[in-house]
């Protein structure tokens, strides 16, 4: 899909909605909460991808994150898959995003939709209000067989093999479907981790790039394909998927080192989801 003549308009929308990045060289600070200086904006469209809901989302990230998105889009296109819809990355200086994202604070995370259908030409207002279809119905523990396909599997596999990717989050029902259907080389399943929500998209999390001493990586992904007892926990005998913890707990404090970049007023809302 190409929106001829609309790229400049979309770019202006992104710039107006997102503000400006902190100047200077790349600095990534924090663990789950944090900030970023020297962020770059993902162009509103490129070979194999297009951003959606430009006026509501944020598309700023570390260079390695943006390279990963472009590489995945190019590889998916080379494999005959449809264009990718790109969702939130991070704000221009990181910190909490509107909508309750906690993890999207350091330019290292991106939501990519799992819709593998051909993408029609849409008007700007349609792109701004687009909701890609989910692969798992609300409250269900099963994927929708009309939405989950070999193309879905291929897209997720390609994403797990991106340079610097730490892990990839999907709905537990999607993880289980992969565990039950993937044959041959299953080593890539290790990076696919179940999480609440994520019924329509996959969440890619990249590791801290070299030279960022204040960037804290998550604990390593456990060995194995993740298809054993840890996955079974998500599906209680009563049916459905385990509900998230009540209340969501107290969000982690913003690192003091972020004061000069985004200030101390930024704080995620209680119960925000790490998606």
How many beta-strand segments?
Answer: 11
Q: Could you spell the SSE succession in H and E letters?
A: HEEEEEEHEEHHEHEEHH
Major β-sheet strand ordering: 8-11-9-10
Largest sheet: 4 strands, mixed
Give me the CATH architecture, please: 2-Layer Sandwich
| Distance between the amino and carboxyl termini | 26 Å
Cα-based radius of gyration, to the nearest Å: 18 Å
Mean pLDDT: 89
CATH fold field value:
Muramoyl-pentapeptide Carboxypeptidase, domain 2
- Structurally, how many domains make up the residues? 1
Low-confidence stretches: 1-17, 267-273
CATH first level:
Alpha Beta
Q: Tell me, what's the shape?
A: globular
Please provide a written account of the structure:
- The chain has 275 residues and is of the alpha+beta class.
- The protein has a single domain, classed as Muramoyl-pentapeptide Carboxypeptidase, domain 2 (2-Layer Sandwich), CATH 3.30.1380.10.
- The chain is built from seven helices and eleven strands.
- The chain has helices spanning 7-18, 63-78, 124-128, 150-160, 172-181, 229-232, 259-262, and strands at 27-30, 34-37, 40-41, 45-46, 49-51, 60-61, 84-86, 109-113, 165-170, 192-194, 201-206.
- A hairpin with a 2-residue loop joins strand 4 and strand 5 (49-51).
- Helix 2 packs antiparallel against helix 4 (150-160).
- The radius of gyration is 18 Å and the shape is globular.
- Mean pLDDT is 89; it is low at 1-17 and 267-273.
């Amino acid at each position: 899909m190409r929106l001829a003549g609309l790229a400049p308009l979309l770019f202006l929308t992104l710039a107006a909605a997102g503000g400006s990045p902190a100047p200077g060289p790349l600095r990534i600070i924090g663990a789950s909460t944090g900030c970023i200086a020297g962020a770059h904006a993902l162009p509103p469209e490129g070979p194999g991808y297009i951003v959606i809901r430009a006026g509501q989302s944020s598309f700023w990230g570390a260079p390695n994150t943006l390279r990963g998105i472009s590489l995945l889009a190019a590889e998916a296109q080379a494999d005959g898959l449809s264009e990718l819809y790109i969702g939130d990355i991070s704000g221009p200086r990181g910190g909490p995003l509107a909508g309750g994202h906690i993890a999207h604070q350091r330019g290292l995370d991106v939501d990519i939709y799992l819709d593998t259908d051909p993408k029609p030409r849409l008007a700007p207002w349609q792109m701004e209000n687009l909701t890609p279809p989910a692969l798992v119905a609300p409250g269900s523990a099963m994927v929708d067989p009309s939405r989950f396909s070999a193309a879905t599997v291929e897209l997720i596999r390609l994403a797990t093999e991106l340079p610097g990717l730490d892990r990839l989050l999907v709905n537990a029902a999607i993880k289980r479907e992969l565990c039950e259907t993937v044959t041959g080389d299953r080593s890539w399943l290790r990076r696919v981790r179940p999480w609440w929500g994520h019924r329509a998209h996959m969440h890619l999390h990249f590791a801290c790039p070299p030279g960022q001493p204040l960037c804290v990586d998550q604990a390593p992904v456990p060995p194995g394909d993740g298809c054993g007892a840890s996955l079974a926990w998500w599906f209680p005998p009563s049916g459905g998927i385990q509900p998230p913890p009540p209340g969501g707990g107290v969000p982690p404090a913003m690192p003091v080192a972020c004061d000069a970049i985004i200030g101390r007023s930024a704080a995620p809302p209680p119960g925000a989801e790490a998606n």
